[in-house]
Amino acid sequence: MYGNTSLTAEEAKIVNSTVEDPEKLAEFEARITRGEKIEPGDWMPDQYRKQLIRMIEQHAHSEIVGALPEGTWITRAPNFRRKLALIAKVQDEVGHGQLLYSAAETLGKTREQMLMDLLSGKSKYSNVFNYPANTWADIAVIGFLVDGAAIVNQVINSKGSYGPYCRALERICYEESFHLKQGHDNFVYLATGTKVQRDMLQEALNRWYRPLLHFFGPSDRDSQHSEKLMKWKVKLASNDDMRNQFLDQYVPKILELGLTLPDPELRRGDDGIWVFGDPDWDEFKRVISGDGPCNAERLEVRRYSELAHRWVREALMNPKEKYVTPLA
Amino acid sequence: MSLDPRINRLDLKRVNDGEITASHLVTWEVFHQEKRGKQPVHAGIVHAATPEQALMFAKEQYARRGKTANLWVVKTSDVYTFNSEDEEIFETTPEKTFRDPAFYKVRERIEAFQAKNKL
Amino acid sequence: MNTEAIKDLLYRMADDALIIGHRNSEWTGIGPMLEEDLAFSSMSQDKIGHAQALYNILYTSFGEKNPDVLAFQRAEKDFRSCQLVELPIGEYDFSLVRHFLFDHAEALRYSLLEASSFAPIAGLARKVRGEIRYHVMHADTFFKQLSTGSEVAKARMQSALNYALPFALGIFEPSAYEEALIAEGIFAGEARLQELWLQKITPLVAAAGLQMPAMDTAKAVYGGRKGYHSEYLQPLLAEMTEVTSIDPSAEW
What we know:
The structure holds 3 protein chains of 3 kinds. Chain A is an all-alpha fold. In chain A, 63% of the residues lie in helices and 1% in strands. In chain A, helix 4 runs antiparallel to helix 7 (163-191), helix 6 (136-157) packs parallel to helix 8 and helix 7 (163-191) packs antiparallel against helix 8. The longest helix of chain A has 29 residues, at 163-191. Chain A is globular and about 65 Å long. Chain A starts with 8 loop residues before the first helix and ends in a 12-residue tail after the last helix. The mean pLDDT of chain A is 94. Chain B is α+β, with helices and mostly antiparallel strands. Chain B has helices at residues 5-9, 12-15, 51-62, 92-95, 107-116; strands at 27-33, 41-47, 70-75. Chain B has a 3-stranded antiparallel β-sheet. By secondary structure, chain C is mostly helical. Chain C has one domain: Ferritin, core subunit, four-helix bundle (Ferritin, Up-down Bundle), CATH 1.20.1260.10. Classes of the chains: A mainly alpha, B alpha+beta, C mainly alpha. At the A-B interface, helix 4, helix 5, helix 7, helix 12 and helix 13 of A face helix 1, helix 2 and strand 2 of B.
């Protein structure tokens, strides 16, 4: 599961102004224009490498931190079917993290360095995972809608230019379709169940509506662009386009169950563009800068997982073995 | 208090002061063979300490769905590749049509021969 | 066939598999390294799947309630699991040692049951053989690597082993039906299983450079098989059934 990459004005300036060897750059860009993929050993602009590492790393962090809100209900899933599905689903998120860290490693940053940057706050993860899963119905909403949003993003990103990232995303998208199906199944059971179940689901939906609108990042009007990142196929679609695609696909699936969304302004315009009320972008900024309901706990748990198991990794280490950058 | 009972059972404070180290295990390139008779195909990597452990890990990361006949693991540092600048050495291959079965077309010649000799 | 004897055996096995699977699933997402997190999670899913299959035999062959009811709506005193599986996951050393001790016993139990005169259990034993073989390989690989990896790890593994062993002996708590099970060719019995288990693990413990706790002083923790559990099972079950109990009439 994933959010999206957004640049600050300063970062966009750096990306857009860095000068590279013109001949190599031309060759590199021609390759991308021809629709070919870039592979790890290729020459690549410094900013291409940096922005890719940043994006894939954030994506990887989002997977392993994303395992935590859903993990909240692992020991409480209500029957065999849901219990097995939820464990397998959370396991997949960890697996996706593994695949994505591997893709980022091919660009020259080690997994441990990435994890250290996550824990120090230097590197971010998707904001949506800083919200709590209060009830079992939150699991249905996450499994159906947060994963649904992530799929919109990941399918688009899988058309990008970096070979190892695309390969990882192909596998991830395949597994996400299981997540979406099991999430939808859970969602439909609650929506078509008893009053208690429906009420739980409606309340969870109300809680997740804003974080879901935030998921794709600020509106294009308020975010920084980099023509270069678009040209290099690092970023492939605008935040607003992805958000619109998500609303188009999922709002009808919510409404068909007689559920509501807590936004009187929400409607699909004649031009196919969804209109929605202000989802409180200030809250988005507060949560991203560390002040969300679960930021502290998420990092504390990840830190625990690293530190409590240091003895395991140290016992496994062989000082004679030298780490080299993985190939693919 | 966490909403997650599992987290409440962990002694989070116990370890929270320690340092994270940048130590890392080596990586292994994993090859996946879907069924007997098929070529093993590169599937990804795992971090592991030994070949046995790499296989244990590869099994759950690369063979937990679908069919598998076998897995291979090779330490990344034992794999050699061409530099990507040398990719042009492969461009000579498509020109060498004499290696291509489609290059050999004798049907027309046979038909001409048959027509001429009323076969 | 002695129906009560078979049912008792099935409940023991099913409850063990459910509870250890449940416990081990707690590591999903917070395990020691990503690859191990995945492997441990898969094994917990396998165990829960085995529990479901065993409850299903009780349901289809003996008219007991369906697997979801048996797992999610039974009272603590009706559980026949050994106390080893109920213990909290603790730290990874304990979880791994428990995995090593329990899975060897389980692998041997299923391999004896492949020859069982009770066809459904013999069939299941053959079906799960591959999964359990992986569990044991995983346990052996990790057990040895950690025990020989560093002094810190070795000390941790030894102390986890000392703590877990009396509980592990509780796996083999005899039932009231041992003679019937043996006489009817259903199962070779807990005493025989314990003997095979000790033969199997003793050299592995030695090869890992650890000391096997003295068997004459290690007192087996019994009770679980008769419904007497540790302080940990009741809270585990309350947690496991928290959602179902919000509305027991609902389909979840």
